[in-house]
Amino acid sequence: MFANKNILLTAFCGTSAKTLIKDTKDYKTLFLPNDKIKDSEKLINMISIEEFDYIFSFGQKPNIKNKVYIETTARNGEFQISTNYDYIKLKEIFEQNGIIAKISHNAGTSYCNTLYLNGLKYIAKNHLGVEMIFVHIPFEKNIFDFENFRKSVLESLHS
Q1: Domains delineated in the chain
Q2: Where are the alpha helices (DSSP H) in the chain?
Q3: How far apart are the C-alpha atoms of 57 and 107, rounded to whole Å?
Q4: Residue 118 backbone class (left: φ over 0; alpha: ψ -120 to 50; beta: rest)
Q5: What is the pLDDT at residue 45?
Q6: What is the pLDDT, as a whole number, of residue 108?
Q7: Would you give the DSSP letter of residue 141?
Q8: Neighbours of 132 (CB within 10 A)
């Protein structure tokens, strides 16, 4: 599904998500400074100057262990926007690679949701062909074998 595609991975600095994607050689990575305005500005700047097929944004979610949450929707009050990505297929790919994956329709209320909302709005407004998905992972301490988890997540992106 993703072979020979231009893929951007994003993660917030100081989180398990950054540890997950750091040092990846196969993908372009963007590390975000944990600033609601600057995070979105950095993402939008990146996708305005380079054409990507997929954007996988990763954030960490408290109180989950050894699983991921695939986010379908970002919200701001009554406004909501859903991903254009085939998240059911991604769930299947994660599970084939040994990762428990849950579908979630609530990207949260803070940094993750803001980034996702602004990214999806920019993509829709500018009619870009890129597909964006947001995936929450546990805090590193809530992952039994982080290196194996990391390997499985990244292998899922190769599928």
Answers
A1: 7-158 (3.40.630.20)
A2: 16-21, 36-49, 87-96, 111-125, 146-158
A3: 11
A4: alpha
A5: 97
A6: 87
A7: G
A8: 25
Please spell the DSSP secondary structure of 40-79, one letter per residue.
HHHHHHHHHHS--SEEEEEEE-TT--SEEEEE-EEEETTE
Angle at the Cα of 121 from the Cα atoms of 32 and 80, rounded to 5 degrees: 105
Flag whether the pTM goes above 0.85. Answer: yes
Say yes or no to pLDDT of 83 above 80.
Answer: yes
Burial class (CB within 10 angstroms; exposed 0-12, middle 13-18, buried 19+) of 42: middle
**In the chain, what percentage of residues exceed pLDDT 70?**
97
Inform me whether the pLDDT recorded for 32 exceeds 60: yes
Could you give phi then psi for residue 92, rounded to 5 degrees? -60, -40
> What percent of the chain has a predicted confidence (pLDDT) above 90?
91
Q: Which residues pair with 49 in a beta bridge?
A: none
Q: Which amino acid is at 99?
A: I
